[in-house]
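User: Predict the full complex structure for these chains.
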Amino acid sequence: MTATAPPVAPPTGRTEASRAGSSGAGRSGAVAWMVLPALLLFVVFGVIPLVGVLVLSFTQWDGLGAIHAAGLTNWKSVLTDSQLPHSILVTFEIMILSWAVQTPMSLLLGTFLAGRQRYRAFLAVLYFIPLLLSSAAIAITYKALLDPNFGLGPGLKLGFLTQDWLGKNTLAIGVVIFIVSWQFIPFHSLIYQGGVRQIPTTMYEAASIDGAGRVRQFFSITVPQLKYTIITSSTLMVVGSLTFFDLIFVLTAGGPGDATRVLALDMYKRGFMSNQMGPASVIATLIVLLGLALALILRRLGGSTTASQQEGA
Amino acid sequence: MQARKLTQLNWFGGLAGWIWLAIVLIPLYWIVVTSFKDQSAYFTQNPFALPSAPTANNYKLVIQSDFPRYFLNSVIVTAGTIIPAVAISFMAAYAIIRGAGSRFLAGVNGLFLMGLAIPLQATIIPVYLLIIRMRLYDSLLALILPSIAFSIPLSVLVLANFIRDVPKELFESMRVDGATEWGMMRKLALPLTRPALVTVSIYNGLGVWNGFLLPLILTQSPDKRTLPLALWTFQGQYSVNVPAVLASVVLTTLPIVILYAVGRRQLLSGLTAGFSR
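Assistant: Here is the predicted structure of the two-chain assembly.
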């Protein structure tokens, strides 16, 4: 905070001040209108579509023509369709595995980056670069990099790198998880770095007096102290993984076959490629519900994270 | 104690740190090196070798395929989103903090917080319908309006956290001097939250600049393409010419890397402050 603040005036004119409205209600009337532009836009393009997605799930629409009511038809057809359990399975597989790769790695790197040495600050700057690239750019790059004929493996004549990475089901899912980690571990490391720096050093001092080594300190101080940070980071990872659309769309388009057809891609394909907006809206509703449920569960696990976010003044 | 902690500090973390650096940098190095090779060098040379005869032809090809146009579109959409989004989010955050106690404002705040837990991209179908009905389909404004809305929840949360830190006495003394809320917002809260404003702008700007789903669904004509979508179509056209495709990757990322080099301190510290609370 470098900005200059106006000098604090001596407490004269107190009577006018308190009359002018130290009461919350009078003051809130004077500022409440300032929330309106944001509220208006958020309602029109956030809240109304949220309701709209539920409404559209009960209609029939090809994306161009008229919209007709369709009752429960879409729900019945989607819920009995064998595509749905597959998409849910793939979504959860990618969500859980990418969480399991990213969390320990981000914790480790975040703790490492929390040290104040200059080379660590320099590393943090370089780590961040993948976050600057669009998912489309990253997908395009890895597609070329992993090409079984002209990619890195054949170029370096390394057999284990020369595989049909995007042509085999399990390999393709592994690639998606690797790229997601490559892209987002830096971001979560940064979150953990901030969290670790807020842990009082006295705790570590006390622990080393008691003879606890680094590893012990990491597991009995760092990790428990980062509880809320872990919840925040996990929430972002898990809810975020529901929207891995562009990466997968550009990388595999859901393939090979349907191996990487996550829910978001399923929604897109049904809606904008097969022109069935009704069933696509069913999937979208499920994504929203899933996101809400996961966020709530994670919040329950950690007590209330939003409260902790608001308290930390 | 600090010294002891550092010397012990963990060789395991250090090892992971350097390995991760390699994992991050190797693909990036490969992108840049390859983008300066011609196709025959790409097929024959060691992938990590520096180009024996560096060429800028790939970049020429990319620039000639209308990239300046897409670049301009991306600039318009990003600036057109971020400036209003940050302005209205700042006003909303100010109102939420200054009007604490009002049930209306608490409700609005709750609504925004809910927006954080919902994958808003899942609402793309109704957004598409809305944009068609507003006769905005296939325009840059069609990308700007939803982008503003999607960036409000996080912006309000981060900005409110910072406005809350402004000492109450400063507001009090300004009000004594006859300042209105609008005046206090501009002359007191605005300068004191400038670091947060920059962080929120960069963070949201990154998301909009790199956004793919909205342009894919809400635009159609080539002249409305933004960079990520152009990248994708370019890759479809020139899939054989990998060096040219990678040159397009470099070109779309370069402006962001430059901005990052300038504003990284602000962004990194701001992000840590915004999320680690």
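The longest strand of chain A covers residues 59-60.
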